[in-house]
Amino acid sequence: MPQIPMIGIVGGVGPYAGLDLARKVFDNTVASRDQDHLPLVLLSLPSEIADRTAYLLGELQENPGRALAEVVLKLEEIGATAVGIPCNTAHAPEIFGLMMQILREKGSELTVPHMIQETVKTIQKRLPSVRRVGVLSTTGTYESGLYPQYLERAGLEAVVPDRELQQKVHEAIYSTEFGIKAHSNPVTAKAVRIVKDAIRKLHRQGAEAIILGCTELPLAVTEKEVAGCPVIDPTEILARTLILETYPQKLKPY
Amino acid sequence: MPQIPMIGIVGGVGPYAGLDLARKVFDNTVASRDQDHLPLVLLSLPSEIADRTAYLLGELQENPGRALAEVVLKLEEIGATAVGIPCNTAHAPEIFGLMMQILREKGSELTVPHMIQETVKTIQKRLPSVRRVGVLSTTGTYESGLYPQYLERAGLEAVVPDRELQQKVHEAIYSTEFGIKAHSNPVTAKAVRIVKDAIRKLHRQGAEAIILGCTELPLAVTEKEVAGCPVIDPTEILARTLILETYPQKLKPY
């Protein structure tokens, strides 16, 4: 096959988040027939990639950055030139840094946009008056302070849940009984309710926009606003970045 | 990476149908966390695969079976052991036959379940009392008589739209203004209305179940019944077949 720009997606982190990213690539592409869509490969090897949050919380020894690098290299071998990783937690420096180091050592030449940086840049551009940004995420991302760090570097203030609310949001993602990872399609009413309540609470605490900082969360909340508060979807931002990196002329206007 | 069974999906025919098949693989897998899901690769190269219906209608010279074989071989190279093609029209003998011939010549060893045969088998098993089966499809599939042939071989009778209704169903799929290929997410209300009206008409003509015989159609009609008539989704049947071919112990009970 000819060497052309191609979008790669690291699937399996989680599996439905991989499909959500691919769908958002298609949704944001100017296309009216099959043949207008962009070349894309999604490789979902969930059993090989350890849980990112469990690693950050010290519950697992194995750094998932190593397995992520393997999947990215495999995507490059297939022909991908820009790869998206639809997992916010995977962008914590301990994980993303190791992955990028392995990619450099192996002579990889592809682009891996940083989902968190792109999200912060997009907020600055689309919502220039916003100063206080709420963040909902897994407890791994929460503990790592990932979003607050990047927001602060950009002169923005992070509004995060207290411990009790954080525990609820984490359960809405991870509970095997009602969480989004175990029940992605359809998402349970209970998970939707917890996430929307959390958005409202952060909004009342002063957040002027809320980042859905775990790729499972946009599966539960598809609205662009909740109770008048703009909701930011990093998966969509990553999708648009991947199109910009490969076929910028095909990006649908926002 | 170790050689393990892996599901491959030929994406791009159409792009959203590829995601729909992947989603239905995940939906039909017994899993409660990321790591429980099956290894899967989706390769979407839409610009390389000519329109299947246009070929069958004589509007294109190039048999898309050749490009389909290339994508399947690429999926095998990546590690896929069972590949699904989420396009009913691609299973017409002229296209599927050429593809399988090329795969044999190249020494391919993977399994490519035949979506139409599997659908007919599933109807016989799940709805044993049904004799008359309605079929909605592209005009390419319609003209090729694909479903009627396989249904008749199984002792079932096909109920198909008259020319006027067929034209409408085809437009619900292909119209750049309101068709499902150009507007997949969300599907337009007009496309949904046309498809549901067509289901009702075939039901009134005596069909006891209706096959959504184009992978775009389940994007418009997600119900399992319309006006009391069971609706058969070949994409879901193909998803379940792919799980059976790779990890049968992980197939969710129906």
Kindly report the oligomeric state of this protein: homodimer
User: Averaged pLDDT of chain A, please?
Assistant: 96
The strand line-up of the biggest sheet of chain A is: 5-4-6-8-7
Quick one: how many beta strands of chain A?
8
Describe the structure concisely for a colleague:
Chain A is α/β, with parallel strands linked by helices and 254 residues long.
What can you tell me about this protein's structure?
2 copies of one chain form a homodimer. By secondary structure, chain A is α/β, with parallel strands linked by helices. In chain A, 46% of the residues lie in helices and 12% in strands. Chain A is built from 11 helices and 8 strands. In chain A, helix 1 (15-27) packs across helix 11, helix 3 packs across helix 4 and helix 8 runs antiparallel to helix 9 (189-204). The longest helix of chain A has 16 residues, at 189-204. The model of chain A has no long low-confidence stretch (mean pLDDT 96). The A-B interface holds A 1, 11-16, 19, 22-23, 26-27, 31-51, 70, 74, 78, 174, 176, 181-182, 184-185 and B 1, 11-16, 19, 22-23, 26-27, 31-51, 70, 74, 78, 174, 176, 181-182, 184-185. Strand 2 of chain A pairs antiparallel with strand 2 of chain B, so a sheet runs across the interface.
